Amino acid sequence: MISNEDKQAWCELGEKAEQRFAGSAFKSNVVVFPNPSKVTNPFAHDFYIMQPADLKTIRTQFRTADRYGISPDTAITLNVKDIERYTKLYPHIVLIFDIEYPNFKSVRYTTLREIKRAIKLGKAKLHEYQSRVDDVRGNAKSSYVLDALWFSELQRP
Fold first, then answer.
1. How far apart are CA 2 and CA 19, in angstroms?
2. Sequence-ordered list of residues with C-beta below 8 angstroms from that of 132, at least 6 positions apart, any chain
3. pTM for this prediction
4. pLDDT tens-digit profile of 7-17?
């Protein structure tokens, strides 16, 4: 048992744990890589992770999003069938939304977990596509309406 006051012992234990984690691949398709900056800066963060991600390119505004309490200027949609597929195959996926509207351009990202939380809390509303009821071409029959402003922005340099 290490004393809570023995900082050096805890640092050594942490370094051993970092070595055990480095290069690890988890069942969730997440891979952990050591941060090369740690060689010269022992206070740098320990790892970078690589995990599944999917890009959603959004160019068409959802003009009636205000019916769901979300501004059409920042509303985006995510297909129910995508959520179901991600849940089954990639539960730890990150979604990147590349949005370009006439008055709003942004790249936002979030986890599937956060989207499912918005659905559970009732923030994300379900939209059923009237014109797709009998669709046989593979189009989604329903989507959740989300607000891009709920998610963090990836800023380009």
1. 19
2. 139, 140, 141
3. 0.80
4. 889 888 888 88
